[in-house]
Amino acid sequence: MCNASLIKIMFFLLLLTQVGCSNLLPRSKAITESPWQEYDAAKASFDSIIVGKTTVEDLQKMGFDVKSSPNIRVLNYLDIAAMLQGMPAKDIDPGLQACLRAREDCRAYVFEPKRNYSKRVGNFWLDILNFKRKTHETGWRFKALIVFVNHHVAYKLSSGEPKIDQMTDQVNPLGPLQAPADMITRTLF
Which residues pair with 27 in a beta bridge? Predict the structure, then answer.
């Protein structure tokens, strides 16, 4: 009787370790707060900016708030000049040329909203013992450069990754001994 109960308990624990362990693997998310939940929404707001017409106040209504957006970079005309270094003057956009001529009346802003989610997947025991780790990363990144001359947009440029879906697979043949082995190798060489 006692033996049957012990077998049931062992079977239950074995089942529990096989089914629920993947939920114990680490996961993370990196979000730069912005009014956009998706890449397409950020891109649509950016596309509504009209060079020569959109003002700082208009930009704020579109979600690109130069005063309160987190993680915004502010550039001056010297930063713009450094980015354009080595480019022939005839190839530089007229809006950027106006920025360089305006000097102190030129300001540029770089907005980088993003939503990244990272989740470890796979076998719990191989992961926790550092033999094999699989990480699934999803999300999006958007980057917008907006240049102002005298309170009006003179130039705009965007880039980004509309759909991130990346799987990273790390294999450590030595498992938990891999880190000490790597430290010894780095010390010797």
Answer: 119
pLDDT digits (tens, 9 = 90+) for 160-187: 999 999 988 888 777 777 666 555 556 6
78-100 pLDDT, tens digit per residue, is 999 999 998 898 899 999 999 99
As a whole number of Å, the end-to-end CA separation of the chain is 62
User: Of the candidates 37, 9, 41, which has an alpha carbon nearest to the alpha carbon of residue 117?
Assistant: 37
- In angstroms, rounded to a whole number, what is the distance separating the alpha carbons of residues 182 and 23? 29
pLDDT digits 0-9 by tens, 105-123: 999 999 999 888 888 888 8
Q: Long-range contact list for 88-96, CB < 8 A, 24+ apart?
A: 93/155, 95/51, 95/147, 95/149, 95/153, 95/154, 95/155, 96/147, 96/154, 96/155
Q: Minimal CA–CA distance to 147: which of 101, 87, 85?
A: 101
Which 3 state secondary structure label does DSSP give 46? helix
- Supply 14's token pair: 């074995």
State the burial class of residue 150 (Cβ atoms within 10 Å of its Cβ: 0-12, 13-18, 19+). exposed
> Are 76 and 106 spatial neighbours (Cβ–Cβ below 8 Å)?
yes
